[in-house]
Each structure stands twice: as structure tokens, then as C-alpha cells.
Amino acid sequence: MTPWEFRVSAYTLLASFFLRVSSRQVNVTIDDEFGDDITGAKPVYSPDTGLWTQGSTCTGCGVRSIAYPQGEVQASQAFHGTWHDATYLSGYGSPCAVTLTFNGTAVVVFNLIANAGVEQTNTNTSVDFFLDGALAGSYLHEPDSEGPSVLYNVPVFSKSGLPHQPHTLVMQADTTTFSLILFDHAIYTVDDGSDVNDDHVDHVEWPKWHPNELDEYFK
Fold it and tell me: Distance between alpha carbon 11 and the CA centroid of its chain, in Å?
């Protein structure tokens, strides 16, 4: 998928999120650390060999919180101030992956993206997405030294028009290259089975940006 095609897809899905709130649709957040706001189900990180770490408290990560020396990430810009960090080196063991489960009709995944080069740290991001066992998309970002060091709330995958049933989404490092994954959160849309008016919207967790701000990520 080209950057332009992805931008159009993201615009379409995000627009549907905002419009559906006035009907029977509710948006639910899955946080990297605290899990699903409704069910409590947490993301599953694999392999269980220490590749994944909580980025907000990591002292050994190349891209880390500014609370630590040479840190680049403003924790206040991440959803709930947390993100999960993993680096995959092509050819070295199983690729790192995060698995999300949800019951809904649409989903968007948001990552932090390391944009500027960090000394002795791989900041290339290349991931594949598998929805219900089938390849559903990919995302690639190569660092731009002229841009900001970190991009926040970047939509790396979106899918709408799903049947309203349980789904499994896996974000996995591209096995052909080096890849840094900084998973922040995901939002999925669920039909709660009743009419939803404005009084029911205040519990929905919205992205921190307006859809027009996507432009800066897809130049």
C-alpha cells in the first residue's frame, strides 16, 4: 500500500469513527500496558524471551523516555504515558509480535515512530499485520533526519467493514529486515446493541490529534 493509499484509508476509517458515535457504535481503546478499557484483556507480546519491554521505564532502550540520559520520548505524548518497545534483528530468532483480540467492526493501531537517527540504535520500522490469520497490511517508515526525533499517535494500520464478531490482530516485525516497534494503543469500534446519544460519548477514548494532522506523517 502506498503512503497516499494508506492516508486515504486512514481518513476514511477515522471519519467513520467520529460519525458513528451518534448511532449505535462505541469506540474502545486497547492500551499497550493496561489493555482493553471494557474487557480488561491485555495485548500478548511474543516471543517471551525478553525482547519486549515497557518503554516508559526502560533504561537500556536506545529510544527511551527523557527521564533517562539521552532519552527522546516525551512520555506525556504517549497514550496513558506508556508504550511497549521491541527490536527485531533479521535472522535472529522469531520475530517480535503483539497480538490483540477484539469484538468489533473496525480497528486502528497507533505506534510511536522513531524518526530521526539515534546513535547505535536501529530506528527503521517495518511491520506486517495479520487479521484473523491472513496478511492484511504492512507499514514501513525509514528515519528522516530532518524531521522530529519521534512521531506520536501514528496510525500504522486500519481496517473497517469487519463482521461484528471476535477478531485477532497480530502486528509482527518484518522478518526480512531490522525493525523497531513502539506500540502505543489501538482503537476498535463495537456495536453495543443500543442507540447511543451524546450523553454516552464522554467515556470514549479519542486520539489526541485531529484527522487533518495525518498529513505530516505521509508527506
Answer: 16
Other CB atoms closer than 10 Å to residue 24's CB: what's the count?
13
List 115's β-bridge partners, or say none: none
Q: How far apart are CA 9 and CA 114, in angstroms?
A: 23
CA gap 16, 14 in Å, rounded: 5
Closest CA to 53 of 36, 73, 76: 73
Cβ contacts of 1-9, under 8 Å, gap ≥ 24: 1/137, 1/138, 3/218, 4/218, 6/139, 6/158, 6/218, 7/214, 7/215, 7/218, 9/158
Q: Which grid coordinates are listed for 194?
A: 443500543
Alpha-helix runs per DSSP H in 42-146: none
Entry pTM: 0.78
Q: Which residue has the cell 484509508?
A: 9
Give buried/exposed letters for 30-46 (b at 16+ CB in 10 A, else e).
bbbbebbbbeeeebebb
User: Residue 112 phi/psi, 5° resolution?
Assistant: -85, 145
Q: DSSP character for 128?
A: E
Residue with grid cell 503512503, as numbered in its chain: 3
> pLDDT for 5-51, tens place per residue?
444 455 445 545 444 444 578 999 999 999 999 999 999 999 987 88
Tally of structural domains, the chain? 1
| Rounded CA separation 113/118 (Å) | 12
User: What size, in residues, is the chain?
Assistant: 219
* Residue 146: CATH number of its domain: 2.60.120.260
Domain that holds residue 106: 3-217
